[in-house]
């Protein structure tokens, strides 16, 4: 997390603006925006370096107003901010499809999913929809503003089984500050200063307080804090609570965070594949 790419996240981009009820009226893109979205989705422009520029153009065509889009049978309200997750949801119907499908393969009606570093719900909402009304999805993010947006997206999608928690996750309880990379709200990391405004909690404590007694699938992407957040959880819980499938961001191609890799080996996980950004793990008896 070194280098000039990382800067403190200014307060206006992480402080939620109160607990007012979300605006749930439909906000549809205009015809020109819909044409641009459909055109891009059908071409290679939906991928890579062009996606951010085209997304900004789509929002400009609508006066830079937020609007709703469907993605994997749920609804996201996109605001056109600095968030690469929005770009993918807007323009690429198969965005992170392999990773999401891998987790969905470990879920059934009444299942339990945990998403650490949930942002606006790219993983959380499809997973919550798959568990049905009797299931649970716990969505955790250190940025309170992202949590408020996720809650709104869950309401827009008609999902009542999402527990959204504004907290960073580590190996101890405390507090810290947020930093952002390349001014992208999707890439936010924690500095455990001990005196910041962001709560820091152990994952086991968060799940216990949410009355979670089992986890079927887990996704974690917290910009380098994975080694402090996940191994202590895996090492402290009963084997019956171990997630059957895990999707975890890797620090560089072909390798995983070392403490996480060691914990996976201790508890009987095996690597089933790697995607563009993540490693996919299954418990040996899954």
TrEMBL record:
<dbReference type="InterPro" id="IPR029063">
    <property type="entry name" value="SAM-dependent_MTases_sf"/>
</dbReference>
<dbReference type="InterPro" id="IPR052514">
    <property type="entry name" value="SAM-dependent_MTase"/>
</dbReference>
<protein>
    <submittedName>
        <fullName>Methyltransferase, FkbM family</fullName>
    </submittedName>
</protein>
<dbReference type="InterPro" id="IPR006342">
    <property type="entry name" value="FkbM_mtfrase"/>
</dbReference>
<feature type="domain" description="Methyltransferase FkbM">
    <location>
        <begin position="115"/>
        <end position="269"/>
    </location>
</feature>
<dbReference type="GO" id="GO:0032259">
    <property type="term" value="P:methylation"/>
</dbReference>
<keyword id="KW-0808">Transferase</keyword>
<dbReference type="GO" id="GO:0008168">
    <property type="term" value="F:methyltransferase activity"/>
</dbReference>
<keyword id="KW-0489">Methyltransferase</keyword>
<dbReference type="Pfam" id="PF05050">
    <property type="entry name" value="Methyltransf_21"/>
</dbReference>
């Amino acid at each position: 997390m070194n280098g000039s790419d990382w800067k403190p996240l200014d307060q206006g981009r992480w402080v939620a603006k109160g607990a007012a009820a979300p605006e749930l009226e439909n906000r549809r893109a205009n015809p020109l925006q819909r044409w641009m979205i459909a055109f891009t989705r059908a071409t290679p422009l939906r991928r890579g370096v062009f996606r951010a520029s085209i997304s900004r153009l789509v929002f400009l065509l609508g006066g830079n107003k937020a609007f709703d889009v469907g993605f994997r049978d749920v609804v996201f309200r996109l605001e056109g901010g600095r968030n690469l997750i929005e770009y993918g949801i807007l323009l690429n119907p198969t965005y992170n499809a392999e990773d999401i499908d891998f987790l969905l393969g470990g879920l059934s009606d009444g299942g339990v999913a945990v998403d650490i570093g949930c942002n606006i719900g790219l993983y959380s909402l499809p997973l919550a929809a798959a568990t049905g009304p009797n299931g649970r999805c716990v969505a955790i993010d250190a940025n309170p503003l992202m949590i408020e947006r996720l809650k709104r997206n869950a309401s827009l999608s008609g999902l009542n089984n999402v527990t959204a928690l504004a907290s960073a996750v580590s190996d101890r309880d405390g507090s810290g500050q947020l930093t952002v990379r390349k001014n992208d709200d999707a890439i936010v990391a924690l500095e455990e200063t001990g005196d910041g405004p962001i709560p820091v909690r152990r994952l086991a404590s968060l799940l216990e307080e949410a009355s979670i007694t089992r986890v079927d699938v887990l996704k974690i992407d917290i910009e380098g804090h994975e080694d402090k957040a996940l191994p202590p959880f895996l090492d402290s819980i009963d084997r019956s609570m171990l997630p059957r499938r895990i999707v975890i961001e890797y620090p560089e191609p072909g390798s995983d965070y070392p403490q996480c890799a060691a914990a996976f080996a201790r508890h009987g996980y095996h690597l089933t594949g790697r995607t563009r950004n993540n490693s996919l793990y299954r418990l040996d008896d899954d």
